[in-house]
Amino acid sequence: MMKPIVDLVAGARPNFMKLAPVVRAVREDARLDARIVHTGQHYDEAMNDVFFAELGIPAPDFHLEVGSGSHGTQTARILERYEAHLLKNRPDATVVFGDVNSTVACALAAVKLGVGVAHVEAGLRSFDRSMPEEINRLLTDAVADLLLVSEESGRTNLRREGVPDEKVRLVGNVMIDTLLSQLAAARERKAAAHLGLPEHEYGLVTLHRPSNVDEPEALGRLVDLLGELARRLPLVFPVHPRTRAAADRAGFGERLRGARDGLMCVGPLPYLDTLSLLQGAAVVLTDSGGLQEESSVLGVPCLTLRENTERPVTVALGTSRLVGNDPDRIRAAFQQVMGRDWPRGCEIPLWDGHAGQRVATELAAWLTGRPS
Ligand code: UD1
User: Fold this and answer.
1) Which residues, at least 6 apart from 219, have a Cβ–Cβ distance to it below 8 Å?
2) Which candidate in 94, 99, 276, 293 could, as Cys together with 186 as Cys, close a disulfide (CB 3.0–4.6 Å)?
3) CB distance 46 to ligand 1 below 6 Å
């Protein structure tokens, strides 16, 4: 009998850490065949190739080469090209990850052609519709047939939206599979030592959300604050291309280049270097969803520079606290961390390094009609 073929679709940097354990588990499962489809949403070597190489992800079987564009343009281009791919190479199911434009576009192309859709990291909600990712999450979950959830809140949210329980499975967090499998190699990298920083005597910063970086005044205030905090604790800041472009447009791009008074700005880092810096950091300041999760698992205090999070378990059980982007609030939270007055966090259910296998098991049961 022919095995069902699944397309595993990835496009942007945070997809790659989620894709890696799922590719491995699906390829190990004798009941399934998998193909990797890369949309090309992220294309720079530092945002893309480096992750495939470090995480041992096989080269994509198909590449749609869509590149950057406005949301409408980028989403439309992915939709058009993935539909053309489906018409020529129809799989039995499409698996999409996370909440990026590639996720919603490929889910939509598939469902319209009657191809089943599975969503890894379904059900997360920030309840903030000004975030492009929230729109992508809502639309993807509305058309998905199998909703694979990383934390309990996902199940609650989907139930509230009327998604039948039979479609939903709590499988845990695939990104944490990658973290746990790469942690020893990341420690070996000694990324902090290469920057001349002793372990636990520096902080790590990332910023790329439109709400923090697209508005020049908000970004300027944050950059001023980082400069101030870095005089007390050196801060390593790998600058995302979006943030770099916004700072250049606003006329203070120079402040995000090189090292000055403790603020060390570098380009986007490979996965292992980021994890290396993260595991040895005294504090993280970030607006990234992935870093909230990773800090929680590693027990590193995380100041989340947002007013909301779609990952509430990182606040309930983990080390993340929402501090928005107001300098006074961030300064106060930073002070608390420096005074060692911060929750240490505890274990999060099913963030155990085996979520990829659970995804493969659920996919196989769904596509072969046989429970695992
Ligand atoms: C995307 C995701 C976001 C995710 C983030 C991680 C959406 C809506 N957003 O945001 O959820 O957290 O990826 O990085 O899908 N650029 C480059 N090189 C690249 C890719 C992008 O220079 O390889 C620049 C381009 O100027 C581009 C800009 O970054 O216009 C934004 O890229 P885009 O993919 O639109 O969104 P991100 O901000 O990266």
Assistant:
1) 207, 212, 213, 243, 246, 247, 250
2) 276
3) no
Same domain, residue pair 22 and 159 = yes
Give the CATH number of the domain where residue 91 resides: 3.40.50.2000
> Is residue 138 assigned to a domain?
yes
- Whether 119 is catalytic is no
For ligand 1, atom 36, name the residue with the nearest CA.
242
Mutate to test the pocket of ligand 1, among 41, 286, 310 (most ligand atoms within 8 A of CB): 41
Tokens (6 digits) for 48: 């893309």
* Domain interval for residue 301: 185-338
User: What is the position in ligand 1's atom list of the atom closest to the CA of 99?
Assistant: 11
36 domain residue, yes or no: yes
Give CA–CA dist 362/213, Å, rounded. Answer: 38
- Tell me the pLDDT of the chain (372 aa) as tens digits: 789 999 999 999 999 999 999 999 999 999 999 999 999 999 999 999 999 999 999 999 999 999 999 999 999 999 999 999 999 999 999 999 999 999 999 999 999 999 999 999 999 999 999 999 999 999 999 999 999 999 999 999 999 999 999 999 999 999 999 999 999 999 999 999 999 999 999 999 999 999 999 999 999 999 999 999 999 999 999 999 999 999 999 999 999 999 999 999 999 999 999 999 999 999 999 999 999 999 999 999 999 999 999 999 999 999 999 999 999 999 999 999 999 999 999 999 999 999 999 999 999 999 998 765
The answer to whether 226 and 254 are in contact (CB under 8 A) is no
Do 364 and 248 fall into the same domain? no
Instruction: Give me the catalytic one of 42, 119, 208, 354.
Output: 208
Cα 43 from chain centroid (whole Å): 16
The answer to whether residue 108 is domain-embedded is yes
